[in-house]
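[agent] plan:
  1. take the single chain provided in the ticket
  2. run structure prediction with default settings
  3. attach structure tokens to the ticket
  4. add a short note for the reviewer (M.T.)
[agent] executing step 1
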Amino acid sequence: MNTFEFVIDRIYRAIFLTLHWLVGYGAAFILLGATMLAIVEIVRRYIFGMVFEWGQDAVIYISVASMFLFFAVTQARRSHLAMSAGVDLLRARGHEKLVLSIRAVISLIGVVLWGFYAWWGIPTIQRTMEMGRTTQSMLLQVWPFQLALLLGFALMSLVCLFQCYQDVQEIRGKKVFPWAPVEEGIQI
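[agent] step 2 finished; step 3 output follows
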């Protein structure tokens, strides 16, 4: 492993571990908090006959925001939903290089697509902040939840960049990131 590969490996490992430990568990705790708030709201509504005006909005938006952040963790684990019938057929017929090429192209499309969404999400968030857009309860600002979506897309683009590098190197016959998942997709 040359110096460049070593540095790239360390950078991706740091990103991967940060996604797993910080973003992944952070999103899980945020979702747990939203669930606990929902339970408190149920108790307040059906036992005490009162609710927080903003409670329902908070539960929905916080749950969705935690899911947005977890997108990148799922991508890094390559645990995304995979419709692999065509790829499996190609692999069974001995077209391994074609399968690897398809995977590299899909990773590249991910870099461009998620990067595009993140880039064009910045003015959207700025506009939402300028307008002071709030949720239906008119208490919660919308922009933090849009920011969670933007961060999820940006992190997915970054992960896809490293996965594209991994895929291209595999086409060349080189194994990089031996610790990183290559294909874990959920089979349907």
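[agent] step 4 note for reviewer: The two ends are 37 Å apart (CA to CA).
[agent] ticket updated
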